[in-house]
Design goal:
Layout (H helix, E strand, L loop, with lengths): L4 H5 L9 E2 L10 H17 L3 H18 L7 E4 L2 H9 L8 E4 L5 H12 L4 E3 L8 H8 L3 E7 L11 H10 L3 E5 L11 H4 L3 E5 L11 E5 L41 H14 L4 H22 L15 E5 L3 H10 L2 E2 L1 E3 L2 E5 L6 H12 L15
Parallel strand pairs: 1-10, 3-4, 3-5, 5-6, 6-7
Antiparallel strand pairs: 2-8, 7-8, 9-12, 11-12
Protein name: Aminotransferase class V-fold PLP-dependent enzyme
Pfam families: Aminotran_5
InterPro entries: Aminotrans_V_dom, PyrdxlP-dep_Trfase, PyrdxlP-dep_Trfase_major, PyrdxlP-dep_Trfase_small
Length: about 375
């Protein structure tokens, strides 16, 4: 079954109360996910601990996520956060394997992880510290003699869609594996991990996948590294409770840890069933139409937009510089526009349920509040 955009939007009745343009931080709640969470609570209430039923949902969620990225279910480990997944991927190689390179568009978790890695004896390089006129050039310089590149598919702060194939090619030329963080992309930017050629891919469900917090995953290609901190769910037979042999799963489940987040699995399964009814290309086209409306207004007003304008270099988000981004985001929320502030920018991020009319109303607010936004610096001013 395929849903039109208005039919898809009808699954989110609360969107009539405000403009939800904060999808890069949190997706909206659908009636489908709400019903799924209710189903979970009823199963808990009525049957106490129906683990066979719950684990069936857990595996269905795994399979749905795997299909979304072009992977097999056996290649996915389910975990509680993308930060946790990133740590597991990086630690799968020992310090002696070579340096870890952190590309400059990564979410802060990668940089906090770098501090811990250094304490553990790893060599960590920040690509931004290396020479080059572009992020890719700086990354290429940092990759010499390294073993692993940590890369974001989309910048959490600017919304830029990175040229992942170019980075992967650079990494391969240096014999490096790639860990790709797709949290700001998945659900909007079509993704095929096999085509991208990455060793690891991680994401989670509470942004564009429209699920809940606390439910994420790690894709691990065959023949990748070993789990350094597995839990009981990483066992070949978790319910065997074999304390003597402790055989780990041979597939990506070896990276799993503790008791499954069943609530998140129920939400994930429902959200992906809904999401798949709107073709990926339709979702991407709709968010770009909305972004283009806001971009045009910002351009006419002379505001500084930090998101690239070239086709293919942006998706659902447009980030506008502001003197006090937190204050501006709060003011917009008071006016019924949910957005988010990160550092010096206000992030406006759309989903397929957003309409062009909403984008126009949001753009009109931006235009009517010039004191809230940073003016673009022209060459003459520079």
């Amino acid at each position: 079954m395929t849903l039109s955009l208005p039919e898809f939007r009808a699954h989110f009745p609360n969107l009539e109360q405000y403009v939800h343009a904060n999808n890069c931080s949190r997706g909206a709640l659908s009636t489908d996910v709400e019903a799924a969470l209710s189903d979970y609570l009823h199963s808990w209430r009525d049957y106490g601990s129906p683990w066979n039923q719950w684990m069936s949902v857990w595996e269905e969620a795994r399979a749905a996520l795997a299909a979304l990225i072009g992977a097999g279910a056996e290649e996915l480990a389910l975990t509680d956060s993308a930060s946790h997944a990133l740590g597991m991927a990086v630690l799968a190689r020992p310090p002696s394997a070579g340096a870890v390179v952190i590309e400059e568009h990564n979410f802060p978790s990668a940089f906090y992880l770098a501090d811990a890695l250094r304490r553990g004896g790893y060599e960590v390089r920040f690509a931004a510290d290396f020479p080059g006129d572009t992020p890719l050039e700086r990354t290429n310089a940092a990759l010499r003699g390294a073993a692993l590149l940590v890369l974001a598919q989309v910048s959490f702060q600017t919304g830029e869609v990175l040229a992942v194939p170019d980075y992967v090619a650079a990494a391969r030329a240096h014999g490096c594996e790639v860990v790709l963080d797709g949290y700001q992309a998945l659900g909007i930017v079509p993704t095929d991990v096999k085509a991208l050629g990455v060793s690891y891919y991680l994401s989670g469900t509470h942004k564009y996948l429209l699920g809940t917090e606390g439910f994420a995953f790690l894709y691990a290609a065959p023949e990748t590294g070993e789990a350094q901190a597995p839990g009981w769910m990483a066992a070949a037979d978790p319910h065997g409770m074999d304390l003597l042999h402790r055989e780990l799963s041979r597939d990506a489940r070896r990276f799993e840890t503790g008791t499954p987040n069943v609530t998140g699995a129920y939400a994930c399964r429902a959200a992906l069933r809904l999401l798949e009814q709107v073709p990926a290309g339709v979702r991407l086209e709709q968010v770009r139409r909305c972004v283009d409306i806001v971009r045009q207004t910002c351009g006419e007003a002379g505001y500084q937009v930090v998101t690239p304008a070239e086709q293919g270099r942006y998706a659902a988000m447009i980030a506008v510089a502001a003197p006090d981004a937190q204050h501006t985001a709060a003011a917009m929320q008071q006016s019924g526009f949910l957005v988010s502030a990160r550092g010096p920018v206000v992030r406006v991020s759309f989903h397929a349920y957003n309409t062009e009319d909403e984008a126009q109303r949001l753009a009109a607010w931006i235009l009517s509040h010039p004191d809230q936004f940073q003016q673009r610096i022209t060459q003459e001013q520079a």
